[in-house]
Structure prediction request, 432 residues.
Amino acid sequence: MATTTHIAPVTIELDPAAERDHGRDYSALAERLERGGRDAEQVIAAVHGFEIALPSWAFATGGTRFGRFPGAGEPHTLREKMEDAALVHQLTVGTPRLSLHIPWDETQDLDEILTDARRLGIGFDAVNSNTFQDQPGQPLSYKFGSFSNPNAAVRRQAIEHHLRVIEIGKQVGSKALSVWLADGSNYPGQMSLRGSFERVRECLQEVYAAMPDDWRLFTEHKPYEPAFYATVVQDWGSSLLLAQSLGERAQCLVDLGHHLPSENIELVVARLLGVGKLAGFHFNDSKYGDDDLTAGSINPYTLFLILHELVLAERERLPGFDPAYMIDQSHNLKDPIESLLQTVDQLQQAYAKACLVDHEELAAHQATGDAIMAERTLKRAYETDVRPLVAEARRRRGGAVDPVLAFRSSGYRARKAAERPTVAPGAAPTHL
Ligand code: RM4
Ligand code: MN
Ligand code: MN
Prediction:
């Protein structure tokens, strides 16, 4: 969908002293990079082309199974989430699209939503299905799985849901369907390990066939939770088997939190890139499992190493490389908008650093087996303080030098707290 920004949700004000300091910091960095043979302007242009989709489900406080502590002024409707998304895009200039989750974002007035989206300058990214919860009035339960369910009628219901998600996606201009399945078993013997995978594959085949020709299907793996013994699509290998058997337009989505501790995620990324099957990402960070924390808050070096693989693929024009960058977070403590702003800033920084890696130099050190110098080449880029560079990239497009501070001084949250009704604490989580 073509988008045009007509309204700016807030006024961005930078005090003259901060602006002067920023100018000096950027000039010093640009000069230093130039001495090292890197061009700051080129990296700014690359950051301008780096687009990340926002998850509609991350604008309100998420919950754990113990509780939920919502803040004032959080959005409750899709329209309100779009307003918040437009604000994040205004401040970061990196998030022009929203990723919808159905049925959470089911709405009666799609025409009005589309009109508002145009007014706000927001487009729509991949649509997400949801068969991990039962919805009010739903005839059959997903308690024992959706696509893997031994009962054909449940599988049919899950397929119908996906057809509906595709329909909504078509109307809003999406080009991809993300499928994360909670299917699996909690106890040995509960479910046939091979049979359940085969049933998932067959259902996905039907969904794949129903997609428009220019769409992609993303399969997302996750090792455990809510299934604690055997999740059907539990790892990138299972996801790859599915994508390979579905066809060319099926690819594997990597959610950074969906790996067991100490798994080498950049290696997973490299493997998928190598066979043209990397769909894209759900960016977040994690210490233990599917923690959905702010990107770069726990393992910023891993994030950089992942983006390094992506920038390499970009430079080498790898076949099938068209990554969909998305965020998937849950905010239990932080203001959701502030956490998203932090995440986008962290992603922009990690991407800018990855753009600074000298690939020729790295390849030369790899060829001679010089582990020290190869590592130093990566670290030189990683240890560069690129904050002034990404700030300058945002500033030039009308965004904020410091998005979190700009948000705090804008008064946006207080205004929304007055406009939007407050939800009682302890209410059901908005999502997992
Ligand atoms: C899952 C998975 C999906 C997301 C849901 C809310 O753990 O990450 O991508 O849609 O959570
Ligand atoms: Mn995810
Ligand atoms: Mn997750």
User: Anything to note?
Assistant: The CA atoms of residues 338 and 408 lie 9 Å apart. Residues 152-172 form the longest helix (21 residues). The beta strands are 53-55, 97-101, 123-128, 176-180, 184-185, 216-220, 230-231, 250-255, 278-283, 324-327.
